[in-house]
Specification:
With about 170 residues, the chain is of the alpha/beta class. It has a single domain, classed as 3-Layer(aba) Sandwich (Rossmann fold), CATH 3.40.50. It has helices at about 15-25, 45-55, 75-80, 90-110, 130-135, 145-155, 160-165, and strands at about 5-10, 30-35, 65-70, 85-90, 115-120. The chain is globular and about 45 Å long. Bound molecules: adenosine-5'-diphosphate.
């Protein structure tokens, strides 16, 4: 059985992340979406909020589970019996830091392979940071994030939800 983890901050989850989750769920038998609890960063969404949003977004995938972790990603992967770490590569600019992380993880635990998914062109410009900037200034973010995330962004930034929700909701 092939088990993979997909680690990240997911602050919050976007359609770019969901695209990687959907595609990796077709390739691996089981995926753990792993939300890093990083005390060095100040996230916009609490760990509980990020987990709740991801669980809502992943509820239709029978082979995807969402969990949080602290410490080294390779240790979390090992604890789950995973042999693969999934990451998404958006642009050349991602490459430098991603290759450094992949090499470090390989040095720490050679049995765990990092597998990169080339992101879909449709979402290649998207990041959680960009989405939060757009939401902060009252833009329509419904094209970038699932509906539950859109609602949460509006709650967080204090905009009138009714005004921003799509007509078909
Ligand atoms: P981190 O802080 O670990 O980079 P992120 O939540 O920003 O966490 O990203 C987690 C993973 O998802 C990374 O591999 C990143 O490259 C990938 N990712 C982020 N945004 C997108 C996107 N728009 N399309 C595809 N993959 C993405």
């Amino acid at each position: 059985m092939s088990i993979a983890i997909y680690p990240g901050s997911f602050d919050p989850v976007t359609f770019g992340h969901m695209d990687i989750i959907k595609r990796s769920a077709r390739v691996f038998d089981k995926i753990y979406v792993a939300v890093l609890i990083n005390s060095a960063k100040t996230p916009t969404f609490t760990i509980e909020e990020r987990l709740e949003l991801l669980r809502e977004c992943c509820k239709d995938f029978r082979n995807v589970e969402v969990e949080s972790f602290t410490g080294l990603t390779v240790d979390f992967a090992k604890s789950k019996g995973a042999t693969v770490m999934v990451r998404g590569l958006r642009a050349v600019s991602d490459f430098e830091s991603e290759i450094q992380i992949a090499h470090t993880n390989h040095a720490l635990m050679p049995r765990i392979e990092t597998v990169f998914f080339a992101t879909s062109i449709k979402w290649s410009y998207l990041s959680s940071t960009i989405v939060k900037e757009a939401a902060r200034y009252n833009s329509d973010v419904s094209r970038f994030v699932p509906h539950c995330v859109e609602k949460k962004l509006h709650e967080k930034f204090g905009f009138p939800v009714e005004r921003k929700l799509r007509d078909d909701d």
